[in-house]
Amino acid sequence: MRGDAMRGLAVFISDIRNCKSREAELRRINKELTNIRQRFRADKTLDGYQKKKYVCKLLFIFLLGHDIDFGYMEAVNLLSSNKYTEKQIGYLFISVIMNSSTEMKQLIIQNIRNDLQSRNPIFINLALQCVANIGDREMAIAFTNDIPRLLISGDTLDAVKQSAALCLLRLHRTSSDSLQLNTEWTARIIHLLNDQHLGVATAAVSLIDALVKRNPDEYRGCVNLAVSRLSRIVTSSYTDFQDYTYYFVPAPWLCVKLLRLLQNYPPPEDPSVRSRLNECLDTILNKAQEPLKSKKVQHSNARNAVLFEAINLIIHMDCESSLLVRACNQLGQFLQNRETNLRYLALESMCLLAASEFSHEAVKKHQETVINALKSERDVSVRQRAVDLLYAMCDRSNAQDLVQEMLAYLETADYTIREEMVLKIAILSEKYAVDYSWYLDVMLKLIRIAGDFVSEEVWYRVIQVVVNRTDVQSYAAKIAFEALQAPACHENMVKVGGYILGEYGNLIALDPRSTPMIQFNLLHSKYHLCSPATRCLILSTYMKFMNLFPEIKHHIQEILRHDSNYRSSDVEIQQRATEYLRLSEICNPTVLATILEIMPPYPEKQSPLLVRLKQKKPLMEANGATESQPAASGNTDDGPKLTETAIHLNQQAQHQNGLLVSLDTPESNGHHEESTSHHSSSAKKFLFKNSDIIFENELIQVGIKGESTKSTLRIELYYGNKTNSHLTHFSADIFTPGDLQTALRMNFDPIKSTIDPKAQIKQTGTIDCIKDFAELPTMNISFLHNNMLQKIDYAFPLYLNKFIEKAEMDSNNFFLRWRNLDKPNQECQKIFPAKFPMVYNDCNQKLEDFGWSSLVGIDVNAENFCGAGIINTSTQPIGCLYRLEPNKQAKMYRLTIRSSKEGVANRLMELLEDQF
Fold first, then answer.
1. pLDDT by residue (tens digit) across 137-167?
2. In 135-182, where does DSSP find H-type helix?
3. Residue 7 marked ligand-binding
4. Whose CA, among 248, 332, 405, 789, lies 20 to 30 Å from 190?
5. CATH number given to 803-912
6. 8 in a known ligand binding site
7. pLDDT tens-digit readout, 475-499
8. Residue 234 annotated as part of some ligand binding site
9. Of 397, 396, 416, 420, whose CA–CA distance to 406 is shortest?
10. Distance of alpha carbon 837 from its chain centroid, rounded?
């Protein structure tokens, strides 16, 4: 068949496949391109078949990875053909190789509009498919009226309505701001949920679900219609929807989409609608109990898909106790199912049910099953969910049993989940500790079992609890001393034991088994096995011993005088040894007792363990976090608490209008001699913002605002006093070490030397960029708080992108400059995994906030990001181009940056590669 076979295309493809080398393939392709170009130029009488054949060859060559710079007009001419195959090839070529020329786009848009207005449904669908494939801003603007009109028109065929709905969904996802839907069409779009054709209704639900997320109030009327449609499907038999029944399950995809749509709104206020929805959910749960009508896995998959989405809606509503309990019981049956995926999903959903006061007790009934799953499950992801569920179902009644079970499993747990388990065990043991001696036993056992996975926050918290509770300090000293006697003692145990003995070793000193000298010798036997940071802490403990036990003072002084300390290669150890030795020699016992007095209680704030756990699992709150346990579990009125109120106040404070907000995230100090410092450069603060909090601890908060003009950055620094006393002798200086002295010129106004309680002061200044730079300046802050000198050193977050100015250009200029920047040191390219969800608008916003322009539509792949910027320095402007290519299937990015100055692309890459 001449119209379909295209023998010339088949021969060309065969020739390419038969090429023995890359060079032979290039020669064959260049020969074919020359022939096609000559035919297009010389022969003006080419018929539709020949144009189609040559356009297909160009498309094939493009898909092989070669650039195509001609043939666009011939492809556009094919759009005007009345033959389906020719029009199809034209649309295929345009969809794959979209030219950015304005004139060409106008021709394409006009041809698409002609097909959308035709009476041929096949041509209309081809046009809609092309618009959806391209899906850029210009398409959304051009057809913002035509496609919705097709969707709501009464004489439009069902197949066209279905395509129109999906096309609108695509435009909404890629260019929602450009797609302006008339509010008069809202009711008619919602009414599509009642369409007799289930394909139209399914496509409409997907569209409405996306529109609801942008404007929920406008589409609130969809709730009643969604419940009505869901009821008709759920209560029907599979014979009523023969064309849309999948393995005896009526319209499972539509049911799932309707259930997800209803999760965008609270439970219906209308009693009749609410009752009907509850009946639907009840029916779905009942059908899940019925015997399977088919042994094929597709039947159970379809039924379970509807069931799990119904359970998600029940959890979302969180108001019908009977439904919540029934959902929990149904999930409990899945815990022993042979299918790993079902066990995983059941555990995940039960984590959410555990957070509800109606179903918490029902979840606890499956405690033994979950514990068995934790011990015997072969899949690590299922074991992870089992740990999450045990954490979520824990309350006062079962806390000790669950903590012991988790401790027992921790010894053989996978390394990937040990750190998270340590955090959860620490949180549960503290929250539900009726007797804090039990809490200390658990924590020391935890450190012994999983010492390598115990983060600083965990052992910091142990020390805070001991310091804050006088009733357990003696017991803490006793068990810490016993723990240090183990032959193999983890370094974290040495830290905890050393700190506690230094503060409260005197409480057990009368016992002949733990005299001061025995304590000292035991601790010093671990000294040489520890890292320099731990040795510093132990030296501080020795100073505490000198105050608590004057009789061993000369032994400690000998240790401090030893060359391994007094002349240590580690600066911190040497400094401490020197200062402590001199302090012990010149101070009388009264002064020494004042300097080395016992630590005061720590102020109670949100637990740093919860902060750490949320950083590891951002969805923890939604998965039944500890702080959202039902009120029935109760809390004691004494001791450290991990309260929801603290979390709420913390989140509320972050949304205040002022720059300096009260974050109150504790910078827990494991030992009191450490300087109050906090390095935040790893978080790359101020990278995408014009204002940010760049440093904070329990005493002071530092905020920044910046506005750049060419090579000058105007800075406002805000220093806030978080205490109830004055901060005196306040000074703040920014230093530019090394090459930064020639790269940056800073000029800041003087500031006040005193900050009043709960007040802030402002400092203004300018920073001029003389040339590009890679390092960060250092900010030094010093002040007196309660007559004690506080010094803070941290990296000042001044990045090169603060001097980037957006650059706009068309496709020709962009790719011309791109090709010119081809020297090895002018380009940097990296492929890295996605750290965050691959959302188009989020990525685009980050790139623009970084300082670059976003050049929409210049790349042949609409999912890619391209843009440009100019780094303004006093010596020379530096042009920069970027191309970010997401691969959603592999969850990877490829980022390519080119700059006019060698080395700059590498510096920009270092800033961006871990931000997507």
1. 888 888 888 888 888 888 889 999 999 999 9
2. 137-142, 146-152, 158-175
3. yes
4. 248
5. 3.30.310.10
6. yes
7. 999 999 999 998 888 999 999 999 9
8. no
9. 420
10. 7
